[in-house]
Amino acid sequence: MRKLNNTIIVAVDTGYGNIKTANTVTPTGITAYDTEPTFTGEILQYNNKYYRIGEGHKAFIADKVIDDDFYVLTLAAIAKELDGENITSADVYIAAGLPLTWVKTQREDFRKYLTKNGKVKFTFRDKQYNLKILGCKVFPQGYTAVIDRLSEMNGVNMLADIGNGTMNVMYINDKKPVESKCYTEKMGVNQCVIAAKNEVLNTCGTILDESIVEQIIRTGKADISEKYYDCIAGAIRNYCTDIFEVLRKYEYNSELMRLYVTGGGAALIKNFGSFDEDRVVFIEDICATAKGYEKLAYNALLKESEQPKKPAKPKHSDTNAADTSEETNEKEVTNNAYDQSDKPSTES
Q1: Structural domains in the chain plus CATH codes
Q2: Please, which pLDDT band fits residue 60 given cuts at 50, 70 and 90?
Q3: The model's pTM
């Protein structure tokens, strides 16, 4: 998190596999209860319900505002980030993101979803939180993980952000994104896990716990027999091949461009993919995207604070105008990240 005057900026990367802040990672699992659960743990109490956070993964849905799950998960993520500084009451500004090709159509709905309660009280891990949500900025996923590397992105570069549910592909040419070459594919790590489980079931007749596959993806090893390991590793290698086939569909050529791989799938490609090591860069910090959201939101709010205050608008003024202004500000600070990529940061 970052502080700007009396505002605390908290970035939340709402993935299908994990919810990340700049300093925390929580599996995107959520189970609701009408009464207090028997076992303690990551329990959040909000709006007369109890939620167990972090067990399993949420199923892929194309619209994250369809239910309250991602809202509750966001509250838990904010609480974990604040807990690192022993803060339970704060004015919070949320920095979030959406897949590249979803931003234009879903940005405002997602912003309104995350800010639907200006003031919110809840309990998480037996601590009471009292938050005032001041606002939210929504950025495109993927590129935020590499904003600190833009200075090295001369020529043609491809970014592959492989999450649990989707893979976002973006061209970054001479340090700037090519908006006409941004793509989202439903080809995340979870699809690889499913493929590996199916392969073990078909080959060995065994129902496999997905945590074994996830461990192999992350570390390249697991305490299992050679027979099962070879079966799982073979399925993962096949999936890596499929990933590169999709990238080639979008004109990926290792001889002409560098490839930057980020997200949870970076370990998958690094451990099991076949690639030119001199032409592929792995960003293995799973919190890199959240850190990027945080930095861009800080820059945007700092810029806003330095501008002269405008007269208050009449109550009947068009709220769509405010939404448009917010979106314009996000685009401006995003472009500034590219334009100033060669300049040293002056942020505190």
Answers
A1: 2-140+289-339 (3.30.420.40), 149-189+225-275 (3.30.420.40)
A2: confident
A3: 0.86
